[in-house]
Specification:
eight-stranded mixed β-sheet, LbH_gamma_CA-like, about 180 residues, UDP N-Acetylglucosamine Acyltransferase, domain 1, mainly beta, Hexapep, globular, Trimer_LpxA-like_sf
Length: about 180
């Protein structure tokens, strides 16, 4: 079963979403219009919530998780992903906040308390340590990450195009009857 209830919280998704049958989405997970969740994604909203924005795609093998509250951080860290975000294959997003029009490169890890502003590229394999803030309009790369350079206009334009490409692909999958 792809969508699993945990402690009376059942994942909620719009009818325009595509969720691959091999994905596992548990608990308090909210998936907005035209989003897509691809094969082998694991999203566990058990000790906090996960919110996935419009036209956002979470690609194969990615892990989405949250952190519970503690004495020093009573609210814990939910995972909040904005609109038009492309999360590449095998990424790990843990208790962070991603704005709109972001590309998270394959194999990147973004940790608790990180805030990523709008219009950002995170390079493949990048590690973003806890509690960092990634400023809008830049490419970030490395382990640990560094601010590499401003984005080119063509790269900024690509952010929305990438999300739209996945909307079209998920529509094809839905037409084929391939969702959960």
């Amino acid at each position: 079963m792809t969508l699993r209830t945990y402690k009376n919280k059942t994942p909620k998704s719009e009818s325009s979403c595509y969720i691959d049958p091999s994905a596992v989405i548990v608990g308090d997970v909210r998936i907005a219009e035209d989003a897509s969740i691809w094969p082998l994604v694991a999203g566990r909203g058990d000790v906090n919530y996960i919110q996935i924005g419009k036209r956002t795609n979470i690609q194969d093998g990615s892990v989405l998780h949250v952190s519970r509250g503690t004495d020093s951080n009573p609210e814990g860290y939910p995972l909040i992903i904005g609109d038009d975000v492309t999360v590449g294959h095998k990424c790990m997003l843990h208790g962070c906040q991603l704005g709109n029009r972001i590309l998270v490169g394959m194999g990147a890890i973004v940790m608790d308390g990180v805030i990523v502003e709008d219009d950002v590229f995170i390079g493949a394999g990048t590690l973003v340590p806890p509690n960092k803030r990634l400023e809008s309009g830049y490419l970030y790369v490395g382990n640990p990450m560094i601010k590499k350079r401003p984005l080119k206009e063509s790269e900024v334009n690509f952010l929305s195009q990438s999300a739209q490409n996945y909307v079209e692909l998920k529509n094809e999958y839905l037409e084929e009857g391939l969702s959960s």
